[in-house]
Amino acid sequence: MKNVAVVVLLFVACRTPGFREQTPPQPAELTQLQGSQTQSAALATSLCDSAGPRFSGSAGDALGVTWAVETMKQLGLQNVHTEPVTVPRWVRGREEARITSPIDQLVAVTALGHSTPTSDTGVEGELVEVESLDALDAVKPGTLAGKILFVNIPMRRTVDGSGYGAVARIRRLAGMQAVVGGAIASVIRSVGTDQNRLGHTGSQGADPAKLPAGALATSDADLVHRLLKKGPVKLRLTLVSREEAPTQSMNVVGEVVGREKPEEVVLLGAHLDSWDLGTGALDDAAGVGIVLDVARLLKTLPRVPKRTVRVVLFANEENGLGGGKEYAKAHEAELAKVVVAMEADMGSDKARATRVLGSDAARAQFLTWAPWLTPLDVRVESDGAEGGADLSVMRAAGVPVIDVRQDASRYFDFHHTANDTVEKIDADQLAQATRTFASVAWLAAEQGVDFGRVAEDARARKK
């Protein structure tokens, strides 16, 4: 009876307000990872300085692949190899936009990916402003004949990057609706949060509209908006780009082979390519630095994790997602062995939270990791993860995903601009993000959690 009484008292205590279960002891491997010196900032800088801009099919793209193979081998990764990816080849040319009426002023512009070229002398037309997605969707046939569509929708600065997801699709919709309306070109307010006189480029999607398409710097979009409040505004737009034949790039793959279950894979991804205006330091050399350094840090442990950690540096994320699509296709037969996938593609700032998308049972186990990530000031959230763009095809096939959610407050000041250079990397914040990715990757590879598969109705990404 005495033993029964003790059990009853403990049962009651566990349900008494204020009672706290004892936090499980921190695994020694996590303590080591969370106290380690990182090299992710140095790796990101090395990539940018060695290859420069790494736009799909360019010389810098090829230099990036060479750098990745050599760096993986230097870091001691196993099974290092490349896998071919056919990529589009679009070349940016001369770019100029000038207000010709009611004033004469140059404004900062950059072409969107796969913009149809203008003639060398450009096109000129009156601007028609649209200020919401609903109004853009409502453009009627013929209403823009001979004019230039101007889509002016500001992006909100948010810590989680949700402001980007809310407006990024205007890059695709602007060109499509300009065609519907019979316009001669389209320009958008850059999808960014800065007030620099720099355009933010970006992809128009898989099937771009066959019209010249540019992005105005946010400050110049504000100028045009003010002028339009007073009366008609004319713009001359010159975007002399060209399409070349598709060419070949590479996904680059390396592994830390698991000590007990090498056939089970925790996949860490980042994209190796960048846009052509800057050197892609935040987008996505920082992510490349993170995942490569995670692999290096795992190899410094007394024992590597039970499962294999596979690093994949994807080609052509920016301009078509070719690397992610080709990887999923080439590895279709073994996707069932990818127990979970993660991607680093949100710059160099600190990790704030992590979440998972898999089975309900996996989420319950995932939430028990919370005390072990507290030293990094990282929350474990119950909401479902999204997974990075490169993982979208794998997620659609049911592969579970984990997000490490970084602070995105300043990321979109530099995203897709000539200002995305290594000086923007915050090495201290990047170190914390790297330790977080390393901790979560180790837990996924060591703890033996069965993440299940993503449910059929949750396989499409929202953004």
Key traits:
single chain, 463 residues, alpha/beta, Aminopeptidase, Glucose Oxidase, domain 1, 2 domains, 14-stranded mixed sheet, disordered N terminus
Structure, described:
This protein has 463 residues and is α/β, with parallel strands linked by helices. The chain has 2 domains: 28-87 and 246-458, Zn peptidases (Aminopeptidase, 3-Layer(aba) Sandwich); 94-242, Glucose Oxidase, domain 1 (3-Layer(bba) Sandwich), CATH 3.50.30. Helices cover 33% and strands 25% of the residues. It is built from 15 helices and 14 strands. The protein has helices at residues 2-14, 28-34, 40-51, 59-74, 133-137, 162-167, 170-181, 218-230, 281-299, 322-330, 360-367, 370-373, 392-396, 411-414, 427-446, and strands at 78-101, 105-107, 109-111, 123-130, 148-151, 185-189, 213-216, 234-256, 261-271, 307-314, 338-343, 351-357, 379-380, 401-406. Strands 1, 2, 3, 4, 5, 6, 7, 8, 9, 10, 11, 12, 13 and 14 form a 14-stranded mixed β-sheet that branches. Helix 2 (28-34) runs antiparallel to helix 15 (427-446) and helix 3 (40-51) crosses helix 9. The longest helix has 20 residues, at 427-446.
